[in-house]
Design brief:
heterodimer; A: mainly alpha; Four Helix Bundle (Hemerythrin (Met), subunit A); elongated; B: Cytochrome C Oxidase, Chain A; globular
Chain lengths: ~240, ~550
């Protein structure tokens, strides 16, 4: 189909094109809800059945890093929303700034996530043959990044958890299946989102978006906010299971 | 033939592989689903030949397991699910609503490429070790124990799922935002309503099977444990998630076919469809209730009796809208001026076979009888009556009906009628004996059976060879007709839809001028433009036959 300016040939008006694209993105987000819904169901059932193992797994995560990442993502949602506003009000240069800020915050998130993942690998917390939920407690020298105090606390909790669930090793792997499955899928969505933002940035630097046509910014914004919301669910589901202790 | 149309607008392989024209993409899909249909058909023939003798001489048990698994995978994921939506739906929805194209032509092309990539992964699995888990991929067989190439097949089906999601998304948006002036919701052809309902199932169900297969795949490759009992995971959870999509998937296969039948019957009965609003609403009802019946595949897994009772009740409930449609189609025939052109023969075939398939479904939804016939050939016969007798009959009827629109040329009528009869007879010969086998207790998926069942198996195999001829014939003469058939003209039947208000084959942009719709669907009485001998307004009920002097 031929394209005249921003208008593709299959549409009659920009308004129709905007309605179609926006509706399309909302429908896509519905499919995303169903997609994450499947793994969240698996999480919910297993957490209910093996609460001790899930609480123990949750204890090994770093609340500090998780909370920082939550703030980073919330900030990126704010810069994204500002970007949408800039596009709607034809603030072209500011739009590029905010898009760049959103991308930068996305990469900060990846950096922190990388630190967390690396820790899990070093601490033998990846499901598989060498998985050991008590690895750091039993090999304190192999986990120099965990303080003695923290290890003592973790050891105490491990004892409790082992009392509560005699098959803790197996069931803790289910927690980490959920952890890697859910955060991995979320990170994959972030990578796609970062790609979309780079594309927006390219177009925005070329001055394509203004008050008459800014729908791509709008719908990528929808996607980015959705990915943030997924994290807003993942953070309590994975990090805060046993916080009341 | 018109001088300029979508087929000769541009030439060369690039003009096809990079096209964003929904009509060309439909033809790309037609070629690829036909390819998978014959692959799946080959596996089916291997199964039937093997079962000619009770002792299992022809294939080893391992080979036999691979044959029925790959038959199911090829037919369900790569033929039945995309067949009507991605071929006929893709071609017709923009034409029927008076649009130039789907809302997202590039995403439409992307969906075909995704389908092809998924297909390549699955073919790779079939050629490198095959697949022996059954098309249902039940865990932990598929995740821990199977020695076949499960991983590439799971990856392939996961990928192909996104082609289905994108098609559904595109249809939903197109139907919402791209309708021509005057094309109100209740003037839409029922084919479009059926695809609307199908698209809802596609976008809500497919992501669930995607995540389920992703989890199963990661379990096989990386040792995740949700479905692995050794780690405390639950294989039944896999079944729940799998059937949450795979039961509604049955409606992805049958709803579009129902949409085709809703077009064929008014056209060849020369009558407005009886109870238009009810048929449209029944499509939506099937889509919604269809999501609430999945555990009827799991009545013998030891689930709670109360859950089973509820799901049994809901299974009976989902039969109601299907029955509403069947009654409405039959009521449309009453007092109509019926002609027996090939598409109508397929519609009649659909009515009879879908009726049998639907009613035997109730035996399986009923708790007591299900335990008796669960996993027997009764189940196999039942779902083939729905999927072949229903979905494929509708697909072929639709292909014949719209072939003059797609290619601009008519197929050979008498040969086509003979093929339709061959198909009908071959189909019943193949699958009716399987109902009897099932009631007598022959389990499905077994590679040997007691000798007293042999006569029915021989009948079934003989029927399958007739059926194969019934499939080959249309493939040959439709291809021939695309090049050498009689020129069809704009509206050969004539039928009432907007797609018949443009030249055949249509222009790339479908209509020279965007049409304005001033009539209701299937309203033969107020359509002087069709050239029928019908007085306008409230004329006599019966008008001239559709075609020829039948």
């Amino acid at each position: 189909m031929h394209r005249t300016g921003a208008l593709y040939g299959q549409f009659k008006t920009l308004e129709q094109q905007k309605d179609s694209a926006t509706l399309g993105m909302w429908i896509f987000l519905v499919t995303e809800v169903m997609f994450f819904g499947g793994i969240m169901l698996a999480y919910a059932i297993n957490r209910h059945t093996y609460f001790h193992a899930f609480a123990m797994g949750s204890n090994t995560l770093s609340l500090k890093l998780g909370f920082t990442n939550t703030l980073v993502l919330l900030a990126s949602s704010f810069t994204m929303a500002m970007g949408v506003w800039c596009a709607q009000t034809s603030r072209k240069q500011l739009l590029s700034v905010f898009l760049l800020a959103t991308i930068a915050l996305g990469f900060v998130f990846f950096g922190i996530k990388y630190v967390e993942y690396a820790q899990k690998f070093h601490h033998h917390l990846v499901p598989g043959k060498s998985f050991d939920i008590g690895y750091c407690v039993h090999n304190p020298t192999a986990c120099p990044d965990v303080t003695a105090e923290e290890l003592q606390e973790e050891g105490k909790r491990l004892e409790e958890a082992e009392l509560g669930d005699p098959n803790l090793q197996a069931h803790a792997q289910l927690y980490f299946s959920a952890y890697f499955g859910m955060t991995g899928l979320h990170a994959l969505h972030m990578v796609i989102g970062a790609g979309l933002l780079l594309w927006l940035l390219k177009n925005s630097l070329a001055g394509q978006y203004d008050a008459t046509w800014n729908n791509p910014v709008d719908i990528v914004g929808l996607y980015w906010h959705f990915v943030d919301i997924v994290w807003i669910y993942l953070f309590p589901l994975l990090y805060l299971i046993d916080l009341h202790k | 033939m018109p001088e300029k149309h979508y087929l000769n607008a541009t030439y060369g392989i690039r003009s096809w592989l990079l096209t964003t024209d929904h009509k060309r993409i439909a033809l790309l899909y037609l070629a690829s689903v036909t390819f998978f249909f014959f692959i799946g058909g080959f596996f089916a023939m291997m199964i039937r030949l093997h079962l000619m003798t009770p002792n299992g001489y022809m294939l080893t048990p391992d080979q036999y397991n691979r044959m029925f698994t790959m038959h199911g995978v090829a037919m369900i994921f790569f033929f039945l699910i995309p067949s009507i939506p991605a071929v006929l739906g893709n071609f017709l929805i923009p034409l029927m609503i008076g649009a130039k194209d789907l809302a997202f032509p590039k995403i439409n092309l992307l969906s075909w490429y995704i389908y092809v990539v998924g297909g390549v992964f699955t073919l790779w699995s079939m050629l490198n070790g095959g697949l022996d888990t059954g098309w249902t991929f039940y865990t932990p067989l598929s995740t821990v124990y199977s020695n076949s190439a499960v991983a590439p097949a799971v990856v392939g089906i996961f990928i192909t799922g996104f082609s289905s999601i994108l098609t559904g998304l595109n249809f939903l948006v197109t139907i919402h935002t791209m309708r021509a002036p005057g094309m109100t919701w209740f003037r839409l052809p029922l084919f479009v309503w059926a695809h609307y309902a199908t698209s809802i199932v596609m976008i809500l169900g497919t992501p669930v099977v995607a995540i389920t297969l992703a989890l199963a795949g990661m379990e096989r490759l990386f040792g995740l444990g949700f479905f692995n009992p050794a780690m405390g995971g639950d294989p039944i959870l896999f079944q729940h998630l799998f059937w949450f999509y795979s039961h509604p998937a049955v409606y992805i296969m049958i709803l579009p076919s129902m949409g085709v039948i809703s077009e064929l019957i008014p056209t060849f009965a020369r009558k407005k469809l009886f109870g238009y609003h009810f048929v449209a609403a029944a499509s939506l009802a099937i889509a919604v209730i269809g999501f609430l019946v999945w555990t009827h595949h799991m009545f013998v897994t030891g689930q709670s009796t109360y859950a089973a009772i509820a799901f049994s009740f809901l299974t009976f409930l989902v039969a109601v809208p299907s029955a509403v449609k069947t009654f409405n189609w039959t009521a449309t025939l009453f007092g109509g001026s019926i002609s027996f052109d090939t598409p109508m023969l397929y519609a009649f075939g659909f009515l009879g076979l879908f009726l049998i398939g639907g009613l035997t479904g109730l035996f399986l939804g009923c708790l007591g009888t299900d335990i008796n016939i669960h996993d027997t050939y009764f189940v196999v016969a039942h779902f083939h009556y729905i999927m072949v007798g229903g979905a494929v009959m509708g697909y072929l009827g639709g292909l014949h009906f719209w072939w003059p629109k797609i290619t601009g040329r008519m197929y050979p009528e008498w040969l086509a009628r003979i093929a339709a009869f061959t198909l009908f007879i071959g189909f019943n010969f193949t699958f009716f004996p399987q109902f009897l086998l099932g009631v007598m207790g022959m389990p499905r998926r077994y590679h040997v059976y007691p000798p007293e069942f042999q006569i029915y198996n021989v009948m079934s195999t003989a029927g399958a060879s007739i059926l194969a001829i019934g499939y080959l014939l249309p493939m040959i003469y439709l291809t021939w007709a695309a090049f050498y058939g009689e020129v069809a003209g704009e509206n050969p039947w004539p039928a009432t839809g907007l797609e018949w208000k443009t030249q055949s084959p249509p222009l790339t942009e479908n209509f020279e001028v965007t049409p304005v719709v001033t009539w209701e669907a299937y309203d033969f009485h107020n359509r002087p433009d069709l050239g029928l001998d019908v007085p306008g307004g409230h004329g006599p009920r019966v008008v001239a036959p559709a075609h020829g002097d039948d």
